[in-house]
Amino acid sequence: RDLLRNESEERIANFGKERSPVEFVETPWLMQYPFLKKEDYLFAWHPSLYAMSLEETVHKRLSKYGQRYTQLFSEVFEDYVLSLLKQLEYELIDEKEYKKKVQDKSVPAVDAFLKVNDEINLLIECKMSLFQDEILVSDDEKTVYYKFNNVRKAFVQGWKAGEIIRKNQQFHISKNSVDFLIVVVNRRLNCGSAAHFRTIMPDNIFQNIYPKNSIGQLHDTHLSNMPIENILIMSIDVFEQFVLAVSNKKLNIIEFFNKVAEMNSNPNIPYLNLDEVIFKDFGIKKRFEVELLTQERNKILEYGKELLLPKNKICSKDGLNSA
Known about the structure:
There is one protein chain. By secondary structure, the protein is α/β, with parallel strands linked by helices. Helix content is 47%, strand content 12%. The chain is built from 15 helices and 8 strands. It has a 5-stranded mixed β-sheet, sandwiched between helices. Strands 1-2-8 form a 3-stranded mixed β-sheet. 25% of the residues are buried. Residues 1-8, 210-215 and 319-323 have low confidence and may be disordered.
């Protein structure tokens, strides 16, 4: 802690513009410094922080390329989300199949649609963006408003796609059903739902997002089909746990959606932590392992040992593997 404090001014200078001292304790900032150097050792001072730093490494390195990076990897991100959804027992309609049914490639679409039952329709939209660290910890209304534009667009896409699937008989949607939208993002944001988003943004945040005549404006029917409370924002790691909990029969998807909609309607709950809802409110005690990620993580750890250990001694309280 003392080492961090002593070098804080220099680190902030290297990071860019001057930042609030409050951010010294924020995870996005701390993740940049998983090691402390003591004599000849690099010490991983917090195992969880070290693990999160490893996860963020690729994103951090590639973010300097801006849109070139996000455009190239957005399809990879979407494909990964779809591969997770295929583990669920519900019929999956991806964007390609959706547009084939609608017979119009220009209509508003989402990345995936699942009919959970006659009462609930689930829409999935992926949004991969840079989501710079300053956005994740910022409380400046203008900054968050403009930098979260892609997320706001996802809300409108969900509302419009919900309208389209109701008009098209090929989707076999019950008139009495309601829609839920999960916006899957590539980083953990300080916002877990559209309801929370609305409390920190201007009143018109859901209007005028797209150019006029390109997608149309919202009306009451959109909000009745998919109330604000039914729109969730999940980081990819939380989404993985959500899908695996449902596919392993540890989480009842209908009870989950009813629970989060109820929580979003409660003004006394300022922030919806979906990770906490899954594991605390529904009593799931153990996190699920994503097989693909476990395999890749083991490869990275082995490579990390070969790359780092011969040159520097790296340790944590329980050694490199535990970190």
